[in-house]
Amino acid sequence: MLSENAVWHGFPHFFHFDKLFFVINYNDMAVIRPFKGIRPPRQLVEQVASRPYDVLSSEEARIEAQGNEKSLYHIIRPEIDFPAGTDEHDEKVYRKAAENFKMFQDKGWLVQDERPCYYIYAQTMNGKTQYGLVVGAYVPDYMNGVIKKHELTRRDKEEDRMKHIRASNANVGPVFLAYPDNQVLDDLIARYTTLEPEYDFIAPSDGFGHTFWVIDNTEDIALITEVFGKMPALYIADGHHRSAAAALVGAEKAKQNPHHQGDEEYNYFMAVCFPANQLTIIDYNRLVKDLNGLSVEEFLNALKTHFVVECKGNSIYKPVALHNFGLYVGGAWYSLTSKPGTYDDNDPIGVLDVTISSNLILDQILGIKDLRSDKRVDFVGGIRGLGELQKRVDSGEMKMALALYPVSMKQLMDIADTGNIMPPKTTWFEPKLRSGLIIHKLD
Q1: For residues 301 and 299, what is the distance between their CA atoms, to the nearest angstrom?
Q2: Which DSSP category does 315 fall into?
Q3: Stretch 126-132: mean pLDDT, rounded?
């Protein structure tokens, strides 16, 4: 295990492990490399591929995998192979993940490529396509901040993914990274995407298109590696716990290997890297169970200290700009607009609408101090629509809903570049990366 001083969620710029110093990339530029992907044969990809482990419950995974022995849920949600109610964190569940991963390979449902490759993974949602490069990202780049974070991680979630990675000795689910826009990579990707893809299907569970190409040309592989090697930073868009877990397991393996050289496969973890200009962050909204003892009228009056409050009736109100919020309470929708002086445009964290709403509404008025632990607040990704907010308030489950204007990629990158951390539940990316198109082994 790692020494205690190595376990800090956000990580220092330098890692010390008892008697081992992990290899650090002092060039301060991104290091990537190709890898021998483990993938389903073309004719099986739709049976194998699944939604990521963390967007559905055990019961939902059990239902989606019903009648499909080839579903990746048997590896990423292996509790479905046990009686309902089995603890997904039981050690036997992690062992089952490893057994199923081996079985999938033994049966030819997953097959490893013969040589290291890069890959292109395209996702299409609502007529818009974004093109990502699947690479091996460098563990020390995560440690020293070349791979930049914008969220804190929770130790329990890290430990869950670490156990899964240890058991399977693989990164089964990819991390979602963004990179600064680059014309050379745009041109290369455009050239490959005119060719017949390896996979091309629409997933019934999300309705999104998933298309995949293999880059096995030696010159193109070298070019991609070279271009990334000139990038000062990569940015985690989604998958902070997966990346933290992959980095920690890689560091463990480095410590445990007396012949560690720094070029072993465990020094890399699987990531899909998209150009920042292709990505869209959607809103991440809040629901609250009570008004902290206030009546609806008292709550609305309290809001008027810091916001211009306008009633919009029973028609759903979607925020139209930064510092404008949609509020649903008491059977009506309201527009809330932050008054001048309630935020600082020069403060990368203070200017965020999640900060404004957390400080001035959830904390000051409703008494919610910690978004990570307070059971009175819940979060809903904008992919579900604002109608979901109204539905949960009208049902009586919740008392109030708050719709936020989404964060921009520029805001995310500015925050990461300045070493700041966003408040919890700030960003929601869609579409989610499909699991099972490719897996990265650690040896």
Answers
A1: 5
A2: S
A3: 96
> Mean pLDDT over all residues of the chain?
92
Contact predicate 125/430, CB 8 Å: yes
How far apart, in Å, are the Cα atoms of 422 and each of 124, 159, 259, 428?
A: 28, 22, 39, 13
Lowest mean pLDDT across 38-52, 145-159, 312-326 = 145-159
Distance CA 88, CA 243 (A): 20
Closest C-alpha among 212, 54, 190, 188 to residue 123: 212
Question: 357, 402 in Cβ contact below 8 A?
Answer: yes
Q: Name every residue whose Cβ is closer than 8 Å to that of residue 431 and which is 6 or more positions away in sequence.
A: 123, 125, 206, 208
375 is written with which tokens? 């059971």
Position 12 scores a pLDDT of 34
CA proximity to 3, closest of 139, 12, 243: 12
Closest C-alpha to 443, from 22, 135, 160, 35 = 35
Spatial separation of the C-alpha atoms in residues 334 and 342, rounded to whole Å: 19
Strands 147-148 and 234-238: parallel
103: tokens are 């079985």
Structure tokens given for 153: 């991680």
pTM recorded for the entire structure: 0.87
Tokens for 443, please give them.
Answer: 């040896």
Residue 108 CB neighbour total at 10 angstroms: 10
> Cβ distance 277 to 335 under 8 Å?
no
d(CA 316, CA 332): 9
What DSSP letter does each residue of 212-255 carry, written as one string?
Answer: EEEE--HHHHHHHHHHHTT-S-EEEEE-HHHHHHHHHHHHHHHH
